[in-house]
Design goal:
Elements: E1 3-4, H1 12-15, H2 27-33, E2 42-47, E3 50-54, E4 60-65, E5 68-72, H3 80-90, H4 94-97, E6 99-103, H5 109-112, H6 115-118, E7 124-127, H7 128-134, E8 138-140, E9 143-145, E10 156-158, E11 161-166, E12 169-176, E13 184-189, E14 194-202, H8 217-230, E15 236-241, E16 245-246, H9 247-269, H10 274-280, H11 296-308
Parallel strand pairs: 1-2, 5-6, 6-7, 7-10, 14-15
Antiparallel strand pairs: 2-3, 3-4, 4-5, 8-9, 11-12, 12-13, 13-14, 15-16
Length: about 325
Amino acid sequence: MSVVPVRSRAAVVVGVMGLVALSPLAGRQAAAQQDFSAVQIKATHVGGNVYMLEGSGGNIGVSTGPDGTLIVDDQFAPLADKIRAALQEIGKSADQAQLKFVLNTHWHGDHTGGNVEFGAEAPIIAHDNVRKRLSTPQEIMGNVTEPLPDEGLPVITFAESVSIHFNGEEIKAIYLPNGHTDGDAMIMFTGSNVVHMGDDFFTGRFPFVDLNAGGNAMGLVHNIQKALEVIPADATLIPGHGPVSTVEDLKAYHHMLMETIHYVMDKKNAGATVEEIQAEGLPSEWDEWGTGFINADRWIGIIYQSLAQGGMEHQHEDGLHEHDGGH
């Protein structure tokens, strides 16, 4: 494991190519059968007390300092020892490396699979709906994910927000309703000026929206707009998948969401079926965004179904009718 500095914007396109292997839909059962022996954990210093760990699955945020270590998400259980080794290397001492808290940004297995390992060491904190989903069987694109045992469940839950005062800063978990799922949270490291966005933010790629778990593309664009209103312009961002990013990257992502949702909305309102829109495709400016885990056809399908589910309650706030298309 090596610690590397924050990558430049030019590295974003290369770095997010790993999205094709993120496999959040495999579930914990499939993950238990997967060979993780070749996975390397890479640490990037993001800012202040905060690091990002990349391995297999969602990005892990780490706060390390005199109070110990806090992690945001924990990938898959078979990677726990490699993650622990990375935390030991980041920590300046055994006391600093001691795990004190685990936060989950949402319930998907590529972000919570390690809960069964780390939940025995430190309390897990998450939104109310994360505990509900982790404690009951869930179906995600035809795959059933079985409940986690008690040691893998959040023991502290919140409805809107919660703060942890740790390593000299307030770490705020803020609920992002019905975007990627119905239990998303962004984590703001207020002193380090770092924000972990969870899977509401896929850098440079179309996102996955879990429609069966309360997710909705319209809710997602609403969440990103609200996030942009509260995140400092000079903050550094940890996406759910992709490299360390900037607020400008998040603005570009929000612009993509607005433009593609509006495009599909116009076609749907004109009477086009989802298959017809998929056959025509999105405008060529979005080609690169479809080279990750979610291609253009799947993103069109997500938008179309989100609209069919009635996810239009935020359209006036988000400017979808005005469609100014700029940042």
